[in-house]
Amino acid sequence: MDRTGSGAFDALGRLRAAGHPIDLLDERQRRVFAELSETEVALLNSIKKRLDDAAGEVEGQEFKIV
Predict the structure, then answer these.
(1) Do you know which InterPro entries this protein is assigned to (predicted)?
(2) Within a domain: residue 5?
(3) Which end of the chain is more exposed for a tag (fewer CB within 10 A), N or C?
């Protein structure tokens, strides 16, 4: 599993690997994500995967307000 050299869970590494734009967050936000548990990260990754899977069905249906 994603562990740091010290053996601790690497939440940011796991989130990055799943495609979350962690590096676009400011330092305070990254600290919050870094403290997530394995269960919390798994939940976020599950939600992201479901959204990504659904994107193929709805992608291209853009709504623009002029």
Answers:
(1) Aroma_sacti_dom
(2) yes
(3) C
Tell which phi-psi region holds residue 64, choosing left (phi > 0), alpha (psi between -120 and 50) or beta.
beta
Q: Which domain holds residue 8?
A: 1-49
- Radius of gyration (C-alpha) of the chain in whole angstroms: 15
Q: Is 65 part of a structural domain of the chain?
A: no
- Cα of 42 vs its chain's centroid, Å: 9
Which pTM does this prediction carry?
0.73
Number of structural domains (the chain) is: 1
Reported as a single tens digit per residue, the pLDDT across 23-46 is 999 999 999 999 999 999 999 999
